[in-house]
Amino acid sequence: MKKKKVSCIIIFVLCVLAGFAVYLKFSVKMPEVFLSEECKNMEIEMACKIAEDIQNVISSSKKGIYKIDNFLFFFDKEEIDNEDRVFYIKVTADWTMVREPENDPVIKGMYQVYNEIQNEKEKQEAKDIINGFLVEIQSEYMLIETLTYEVIAVVSGSGNEGYKLYYPLVRDQEETLIPLNEYFAVEESNAKMELGKNTILEIMELK
Fold first, then answer.
1. What is the per-residue pLDDT for 30?
2. What is the 3-class SS of the chain, one letter each residue?
3. Which of 16, 156, 184, 193 has the fewest CB neighbours in a 10 Å radius?
C-alpha cells in the first residue's frame, strides 16, 4: 500500500512537470502582447491573433536575411472609423543580419560587372568599390538592433468580418496606409542584382 502511494506521487509530479514543459513550449511561441488603457476593450484573443499575423508577415519577408526575435506588441490607442475599429500598434523586435555580406544580391550584381571587365586598371577600381560596399555591410553583419515600427490594424465591425494590417508611411508630412505585406515585401533578388550592376557602372562611368 505504501509503494502504491509513492508511485502515485511520482506519477503526479511527472504529470505536473510534463504540463509545465508543454506550457513553456507554447508560451515561447506566443508573442508578448500588451494593451493600453485606451485599448482595454480589445479582446485578448483577437489581439494575439493580430500580433501573430504581424510577426509572420515581418519574419517571412526577411527570412534568410535577418533573424528577428523578441517581438513585443503594444496596442497603444483605438479609434472608431464608421463601423471599423482602428488600432495603433507599436511593434518592437530585435533584428540581427544573418546573411553574409557576400551573398547580398547587390554585391552579387557588382561582381557580375567585375567579372566582365577586361581592363586590369578598371578591374582593380571595381574591386575597390565592391570592397567599400562590403565594409559598410559588414559593419551591420550579426549586429543586434532593436527596431520599433507602428502598424495599424483596421478591425471590421465586431471583428468577425476580419481585419486588415497597414504600415503608415509618412512622406512630406502626409500619411499613406500601405498594406503591411506590401511594405514588408519579400526581397526581389533579380531587381537588387540589377541595382548592384547599375550602381558600379555609374560609379565607374562605364554605362
1. 62
2. CHHHHHHHHHHHHHHHHHHHHHHHHHHHHCCEEEECHHHCCCCHHHHHHHHHHHHHHHHHHCCCCEEEEEEEEEEEEEEEECCEEEEEEEEEEEEEECCCHHHCHHHHHHHHHHHHCCCHHHHHHHHHHHHHHHHHHHCCECCEEEEEEEEEEEEECCCCCCEEEEEEEEECCEEEEEEHHHHCCCCCHHHHHHHHHHHHHHHHCCC
3. 16
